[in-house]
Amino acid sequence: MRNEVLTDRLLLREWIDEDIDTLSRIFASEEVWRYPLGRGLTIEEIVSVIEPDNAASRRVAEKLGMRLDLATVHPALRVPLLIYRIFPPPRANS
Predict the structure, then answer these.
(1) CA-to-CA distance for 47 and 44, rounded, in angstroms?
(2) Exposure pattern of 12-34 as b/e (b: 16+ CB <10 Å)?
(3) Average pLDDT score over the chain
(4) What is the domain partition of the chain in residue ranges?
(5) Cα angle 87-49-76, degrees, rounded to a multiple of 5
(6) In this structure, what are the phi and psi dihedrals at residue 50, rounded to the nearest 5 degrees?
């Protein structure tokens, strides 16, 4: 049984593989990047920090349009990490 919370306006549930395509379309939307937080705040980039052996997380990041930016080592834990990033799409000329 999956954990779900249903309100009058929203269904909260666990992530499923079928969500990836929808989330990819959301990330590609200029409107989402322009007004994601309300009150005029914008997002300049989204960053994902992934352990190199976590192939599933790497696939999800790449499916969402994120690109590998940096392979590094955590300064305190001394474990390898991959840094994936996605930037907003270019804005259309107004």
Answers:
(1) 10
(2) eeeeeeeeeeeeeeebeeeeebe
(3) 82
(4) 4-86
(5) 135
(6) -130, 140
Q: Which strand (E) or helix (H) includes residue 19? A: helix 19-27
List the beta bridge partners of residue 12: 5
Backbone angles phi, psi at 28, to 5 degrees: -80, -10
DSSP 8-state secondary structure symbol assigned to residue 91: P
The residue type of 42 is T
Q: Residue 31 and residue 25: Cα distance in Å, rounded?
A: 11
Mean pLDDT along residues 18-44? 70
Residue-wise DSSP of 48-81: EEE-TT-HHHHHHHHHTT-EEEEEEE-TTT--EE
Give the pairing type, strands 80-86 and 67-73. antiparallel
The Cα–Cα gap between 83 and 41 comes to 24
